[in-house]
Amino acid sequence: MMLKLNCIKTVAAFAAVIAMLFGSTGCGINLTKDRTEYVLLGGNSGDIDYDHPDATTPEWQVGGPDQDAQVVEEAPITGKLTVQIFINENGVGEDAWTKILDEFEQANPGLELTTYIGPNVNSQLASKWNSGKDTPDIVLLDGKGLSEYSMSAAGSFLDLTDWYQTATVYGTDGKIWDKVNTDALERYNGCQYKAPLMLNCYGLWYDEASYQAMGISAHRDFSGMLANGQVLKQNWQNSLIYPGMYSNYLVWGTVMPAVAAYGQEFFNRVASGQEPEAYEDARFVGVLNNLHTLSQAGYISASATQDHLGAQSDWLNHRAALVSSGIWLEAEMKNSIPGNFEMHFTTAGLNAAGQNPGIALMGVGVAISANTQNAENAKTFLRYLYRDENLNRLAVSYGYVSASQWQPEIAAYSPISQKVMQYIRGEDVTVVYKVCDWGNVGETFNNVANQIAQGSLSVEQGIRQLKEAAQKNS
Questions:
Q1: Are residues 236 and 183 in the same domain?
Q2: Pick from 201, 131, 189, 169: which is nearest to 369 by CA?
Q3: Full-model pTM
Q4: Per residue in 375-395, pLDDT tens?
Q5: Terminal-to-terminal C-alpha distance of the chain
Q6: Which of 324, 226, 230, 319 is nearest to 23 (CA)?
């Protein structure tokens, strides 16, 4: 389907509304602060510093530096620019992207701008990327039908490492390097392919109204989650639900936040897939033991054929108290949330008693095609995306954290996303960044977590499989 906006803007038709959902935690009776008792639940052992991980909560700044930068007049660009943007069936982010594209086009009336946007663009344009011919100049690395890591490995994208050092924000003399949260820059084989615009994270969603009705509060650690499970099972079928078809939701909603609670260094060891020994570390074994304990207690539900729609339906119908998903959930579900729901988000699911919850932020951004014929135009558009108003628009539209060091005002978000932002920006969380790809270990990790959660694999067997996969990387 084509729609003309001054020049050429191709817009794929949107399908019917689908909500990818998953939710966060909820439980909250803190059984004990005694870490020895926690170990008995299958947690950590050894000389481990729970209270002082090697990561600190960022000092979140509100606003942005553009207002203080010197204004620079930009000469309008001409020629061509083609942009590929995945938008899901519910149109999350569509308004923000449309405004950004329209305003960029108005500032550059001589530019022939072609935009492919919609829920199927990644699969529709896959053949172009596979052949390396006639690829879009710039692509949003998000959504189904696109694998940024396999495309990076195939040499599909420009290396932006050097560009980041000198590029300025469009219309100012301020450097992007001074604005972007450099802790979140993710490299692949030493190259900076992705330009992050937003930061996403996973966790557990729960319904606070239902918790209050049952006389419980959101759990703050694994022992609280286990205790709440006893109450929840009396009222609902399960404590936690996730789509068995997509066990990465389970991994990033439960396992990796618990790993993140130990800080950036340990998180990197696990997430890089380069160190087989990391999977034998008492801290990691403890996290998997907690997942296993939760499974053995009958508090987890998922089948190998269950997709995110099935998990969503069960959660919305109170067949499960918790659903594992990303912070985009409310934006995707906004037309389907029952009126009696009070959605809340937490990342405290499998972490140790007394330990701050971990948050693993991961970049969502764009890349420039290595085969582009319009590299300078693509870089100009990328500079435009890093303007304060555009980064804020995108973050608020998706319900994400901005990839800038400066964040939107919390009041700019929806009421539900405001709660999420307050949680993420709180002083009692440990924030880390996903800056590496775990290669061969990724699929194994998902399978191991899924099988442990379903009771078909022991922790010992899972550790062995992870070590073998990591040895192929190292």
A1: no
A2: 131
A3: 0.87
A4: 999 999 999 999 999 999 999
A5: 47
A6: 324
